[in-house]
Prior knowledge:
Elements: H1 15-22, E1 50-51, E2 57-58, H2 64-113, H3 122-147, H4 151-178, H5 191-194, H6 200-207, H7 239-247, H8 250-278, H9 282-308
Helix pairs in contact: 3-4, 3-8, 4-9, 7-8, 8-9
Amino acid sequence: MSDTDPRAGVGLPTPAATVEARTGDPGVDDRGATSSTDPRPSSGQNTPTAPDADGRESDGLVGEGHTGEGRDDDGRAGDGRRRHGRSALWWTPVVLVVVAALLAAGAAIGGLIDRSPGENSVDVGFARDMSEHHSQAVQMAMIEFSRGADATSRSVAQDIALTQQREIGVMSTWLSGWGRTQSNTGAAMRWMGATSTDGSSTHDMDGMAGMNGSGSGSGSGSGSGSADDSARMPGMATPAQLRQLATLRGRDLDVLFLTLMIHHHRGGLAMAQYASQHGEQDRTRGVARAMVLNQSVEIDQMQQDLVRLGAPRA
């Protein structure tokens, strides 16, 4: 092209300038304008960096170093959790086996401690015979409570009925738990002589032979040998005495009730004393001792009531 070409000098960029503008020359922006004085850095420049918390420079973005370390930390934590989980899984069956063994040992020890007493044991015999003995006492006490004249005697009768009925329930629960029948169909009080080693039970039973209410002022004959003059256990009232008690009222009822109940308590005391010394289980001995204490106090009270009523002591 000649110097006189009309297109010359119109200020068109030279090819070299065009190439520099497209390649991002520092002095020319994308629009062809120079940016030497522009304070903003171009996209191709790195921004100033500042050290982060661990002394490394950071450009404000999450760099490859940070991203890599984050993955490493997460990986290590994940590995720890997985190892802990595997360890816990390994120990679980061991712990279960130990717990099962301890439970089995406890059950075995409990079975030895709470072993049910035998059919002919003092515990079973005492629970059966004392329940029957108590049942008659409750029957007599309710007669006195309903028709007696003396307020003190009626109050004693109420206490006897409530206390001995509750004790019947306790002993009935024992027998059920031991898998034993509630009543004794054989001879009464065999358990008092079966386990004796010093002959004391035979002496006790002989001493109670006269506690059946004969000579107590009830009017029943003694030594007649009739069914109405016999009682199943020492201290218990005879059928004839029970019928007479049911026909009386007022002071006569008070006196007969107190007399019969004192004899009844004495027979029960002998049974309870023996069970408190020879029972196998702690609860048997404990309840028997409580009976001895309560009935001893009640005997003293009833003797005083007889004297107060002008009747002879039983």
